[in-house]
Amino acid sequence: MKRTVLVTGANRGIGLAIVRQLAELGNTIFLGTRDLKAGEEAAATLRHNGLDVTAVHVDLAVAGTIDTAIQGFARPGHQLDALVNNAGVLHQQPLLELTDAQIADSIAVHLTGPLRLIRGVVPGMIARGAGRIVNVSSGWGSFSEGLGGPGAYGITKAALNALTVRLAKELPPEVKVNAMCPGWVRTRMGGEGATRSPEEGADTAVWLATLPNDGPTGGFFRERKAIKW
Ligand SMILES: NC(=O)c1ccc[n+]([C@@H]2O[C@H](COP(=O)([O-])OP(=O)(O)OC[C@H]3O[C@@H](n4cnc5c(N)ncnc54)[C@H](OP(=O)(O)O)[C@@H]3O)[C@@H](O)[C@H]2O)c1
How many domains, the chain? Predict the structure, then answer.
């Protein structure tokens, strides 16, 4: 089945690898990017390889860009079968040293931005009888793994996990929502010493975005296996 998918924060890192893998499966991909020039360059490179990838301006911290993108996804041929909330931000300061702007940014990118996008595209998924939502989280957002990471990161990823659990209770079963942890990945965020490639980090998100109808919902996964919240 050919799907139409939006991946946020996809101009580089794990998001770009998710886009590439989903496009190589024959899907139509919207590459969400807050820096439209960088996103268009990334999309053009993939199109040169014959892939169906178009850049879309989505800044999770600017509600107007989310709303404009949602209007675009209402058009015939642009309706989303899957949404991958991949964008992430890692402010390094301890909790008590964060500025208001850094706290607001963490909440917007990991919680309120994804929720705004979900709110905008889920009614269409329900009407069409199918949808997949993937929230790219982190083991640092897991209570059972000790809420690691600096300052606001683990707290807001935990909030994204809570959003996943809550949303699964409200959605009809044909619209599935799951969270995943990509592991420690060699990106600008993960650093050069990380153990996994962006392609490896992308795999579980690609799997969740293309789940069959009898696939799981309301779960948290790493390497395609369920993990504890
Ligand atoms: N790397 C790891 O080891 C690791 C581990 C666990 C979880 N994760 C999660 O995996 C996801 C991808 O991370 P990554 O390692 O690929 O990080 P990355 O290389 O730093 O990429 C982060 C992406 O998010 C985008 N972004 C940041 N703020 C945004 C905003 N306001 N609106 C839209 N996009 C925004 C960035 O855009 P710009 O290019 O414009 O900055 C970039 O495209 C994140 O959710 C991260 O938390 C990563």
Answer: 1
